[in-house]
Amino acid sequence: MGNRIALWDNLKFFLVTCVVIGHFADQFTDVSNIYDSIFLFIYSFHIPLFIFISGLMFKNKDITSKVIFFISIGFAYKIVSAIVERLLGTVKVEFFLLRDGGISWFMFALAAYTIIMRIIGGQNKRYILIFAIVLACFVGYDPGIGDFLYLSRIIIFFPFFLSGVLLQNVDIVRFKDKNSKYIFLAGVIVLVWLGLCIYEVDRVYGLRYLFTGRNPFFPRIMSYAPLVRLASYTISFGMCFALIILMPNRRMFLITDMGKNSINVYFWHMHIYYILNKVFNISNIFNYGVSGKLAFLLMAVLLSIILSHNIFNFPIKQIREQIFLNNKAS
Question: How many CA within 13 A on the CB side of residue 201?
Fold first, then answer.
């Protein structure tokens, strides 16, 4: 573990915290403009950058084990979701084997990308990246694209994964250290997009349905939808670049270590939210004015910090040990 790079662990904690904040905010996007703004801002970069980092860290070895690992976590998440639903009193528990609108899709997408990289290992990846972007610009015209086999999100987010793979030979940490001139540009990108999300939210909120990656094009943009998809990619790639530039390279107190456990936060945060909301009705805090809205999102940050502790590494640790450590022993 000594060869870990602090930059990526810092980013992973920041991003998984954004995931939790985004899911908390989504509970009230129908009734709060500021939550609309927060949701739109976060969704423009948190999953794209997570997937970019996954591509950057990709190694073309232990492919079968990695695929089994990702799929195991995906199905474990579905099973735990069904159990939590039943314990919380849901009479008709839903369990879909090959589709769902929840967050388990992320693991199935990583499994798909791992398989795809094995298939295209010796091919022209720059051409495939361009082709993947073009395909993503048109796939939204298919009204059947959606949650089945997670195809929509696999296709939409693949360019970020492949971009990470293509940049593996670039020393991004060194690039950051030698090009501090880009910090100003990165700050401008973040502030301009944040400003648009806050002050022009009604005008740009439709991008939400493109940033999530799971929806076909909606009727209002049909005549120019590929251009809107390109615009969403431009925003997402720009935000990814900006956040990489702005995030410190050095170890940060607690944050760097917590970033190593981002998968634990991913796995447990919504289950814990549903339990807390059932028992303590925590979402009611939202109704207490501005301070309540802020407190509700601060709970998301606190939950990310708590779940980053090693005690919440079940069942990820056990799955990893069964798949990877047993492989090494054999």
Answer: 16
Given a cut of 70, the residues of the chain with pLDDT beneath it are 1-2, 326-330
- Whole-number pLDDT of residue 33: 94
Q: How many CB atoms lie within 10 A of CB 108?
A: 23
Contact 20, 269 (CB under 8 A): yes
Quickly list H helices, 57-150: 63-87, 105-119, 125-139
CB distance 214 to 146 below 8 Å: yes
Whole-angstrom distance between the N-terminal and C-terminal Cα of the chain? 22
pLDDT digits (tens, 9 = 90+) for 240-256: 999 999 999 999 989 99
Q: Which two tokens stand for residue 120?
A: 């295209």
Is residue 292, in this structure, part of any structural domain at all? Answer: yes
The β-bridge partners of 99 are: 148
- Domain range for 167 is 6-329
Q: Determine the residue type at 9.
A: D
- Maximum distance among all Cα pairs of the chain, rounded to whole angstroms: 59
Task: Report the distance separating Cα 284 and Cα 279, nearest Å.
Answer: 12
DSSP for 170-220?
S-HHHHHHH-TTHHHHHHHHHHHHHHHHHHSHHHHGGGHHHHTS--PPPGG
In a domain? residue 1 = no
Say how many domains are in the chain: 1
Q: Is residue 146 part of a domain?
A: yes
Cis check: omega of the bond before 219, within 30 degrees of 0: no
Q: Are the beta carbons of 43 and 211 closer than 8 angstroms?
A: yes
Q: Which of 119, 102, 125 is nearest to 267 (CA)?
A: 102
- Examine residue 205 and state whether it is found in any structural domain, yes or no: yes
Residue 97 class from Cβ within 10 Å (0-12 exposed, 13-18 middle, 19+ buried)? exposed
User: Residue 66 corresponds to which tokens in the numbers above?
Assistant: 């990695």
